[in-house]
Amino acid sequence: MAAKIEKSYVVIEEAKQLNYLNDYVALPKEYGTPGYDGREDVREIKRVVFSALSKLDDKIDLKKQINGRHVIIKPNLVTVIHNMGYKNADMPQSTDPRVFEAVVDYISRYTNRITIAESAGACTATTAYFKITGLDRVAKKYNTGLVAFENTPIDRYILPKAEIMKEVCIPRLLSEIVRGDAYYISVPKMKTNLYTGVTLGFKNAMGTLPENMRYRNHSYQIEKKLVDLLYLFKPDLTVIDGIVGAEGCTPGPVDPVDSKMIVVSNNSVEADRITTDMMGFDSKENELIKEAVSRGYGDPKTEIIGTPKYFNFRPADKSLLNDRFRKNFPNVKVLVGVTKNDAIHKITNLGDVTPELVREMEGMCNGGCRPTLAYLFEMYVYSKKPIDKNFKMVIIYGTGVKIDGVTYYFDSDGKAYNKKDINELPMPKYAIGECARDMEIFADVFSGGCCDIGAATGAIQKATGLTLPMLSLDNKVLPGMLKAMVETYVSRRKILNDGDYYDIPYDQKDFDKVFPVPTLSEEEMKQDFIEWPLPRMTENMKKEKLKNLKLM
């Protein structure tokens, strides 16, 4: 483990007033030429990044920490929106490549051992996003490594102090960070998020997990899961890209915020806490930050260098009962039957159910079904190609509320529907989430988990009869993405043939399971992590896995 830095610093820098709304997603063809390097926006971004890092260096001797070491730098490329069939060609979902290059440039002056590494997530090949953003060209210019985590073997660990993720697998490259052999830099985007309110420095680590590992506990347990991961490794340095912020329903299409800010810190939780406040949200009310602070990862004595500037980012609203959703999709009937965590009032009389109570019921589970639906429907809202949003369908989620032995769901007006009523509704029905599995027999479409984003992506298109923009021919980068998926398939075959693992098994029904680990001694329980090698892959196991290997 890297040596603990006793004092935390957060440096805040504001770029001067310029137009930064060009090339904030993908580097232009002229990148690397004198003309590009001389652009005023490029020079100013580099100046402000260098200034922030230099001020932090004055406090923690950053140059000495990275001098000659292997440095792993991770952007946030969970969704790179560039010419993908939306109204705006570019949307600020991903780390600005101009900011990222400035970080690489600064670090490269003190070490020549740099690896750019990322995993974009479900059903997406990261190598395609490297090319779209131009980070492959950044890697070439600075002679760095370039690694898509999903194309690498994994290591397994036990986290004795974890509350949820007691077993965790990570790409083998990151074990260098765990052992203290590499320095880790997180470079996220300043943006809102449907699952956690905001997604900044330490949530960026979700992109370090193998795909199926992400699905585990990507539910109402997500905050605990992300904080559990801090026992294994955490950013040594966080550089938050707030040059062009993002507001709205991330990871769906978003709108730009002309924020012009860079935030750097040696404590990712403190960087996230202060940035959350700057975005216009109360960090004391953010469940992810509250969870991290409650486990001692915050620092009340953090020194802030620079002046925070405050904005009013539009929040990521995951409600399917709000006015905006109902206006955009007037004929989508949402039926709510959430009883998760025993938080729902005991309803004994159908006449007591009001629209206000249904909205309260909807918000009582912080699981993944609503955020996933909000994210997918937002793609239709932002579609470049006009879409008739008057289609009719029914969405069903939750276990249903039992009254006198009968299961009921409620619409936005508080009207009750039993299973027979739902079955007779003359429109396509989509039951989503593991809690609604009993409704599968009444639905035209079902996807489980909490939530399985890949399955939900296919299910929503089947239910609506509409192709999502990013999967349509309007997505000009789709051929490159498909090519990258084939490359990932080939890489994974090689990993399996070498007798290694690239991911873990996944079952939708295990979405909130705490997976067992071996019994630990009293002394082992005090450790942050313990190496736990994966079982040796037999020839029969290898053949079975190769047989079942799919194209993403």
Structure, described:
The protein is globular, with a radius of gyration of 23 Å. The two termini are 33 Å apart. The protein has 552 residues and is of the alpha/beta class. Helix content is 31%, strand content 19%. A hairpin with a 5-residue loop joins strand 12 and strand 13 (254-257). The strands form 5 sheets. Strands 1, 2, 5, 6, 9, 10, 11, 12, 13, 14 and 15 form an 11-stranded mixed β-sheet that branches. It has a 4-stranded parallel β-sheet with strand order 16-17-21-22. Strands 8-7-23 form a 3-stranded antiparallel β-sheet, with no helix packed on it. The model has no long low-confidence stretch (mean pLDDT 94). 50% of the residues are buried.
What is the percentage of strand-forming residues? Answer: 15-25%
**What spatial form do the alpha-carbon principal axes imply?**
globular
Structural class: alpha/beta
Estimate the mean pLDDT confidence: 94
Low-confidence stretches: none
Q: How large is the radius of gyration? A: 23 Å
Number of strand elements: 23
End-to-end distance, in Å?
33 Å
Give the fraction of residues assigned to helices.
Answer: 25-40%
Largest sheet, strands/sense/barrel? 11 strands, mixed
Number of helices: 18
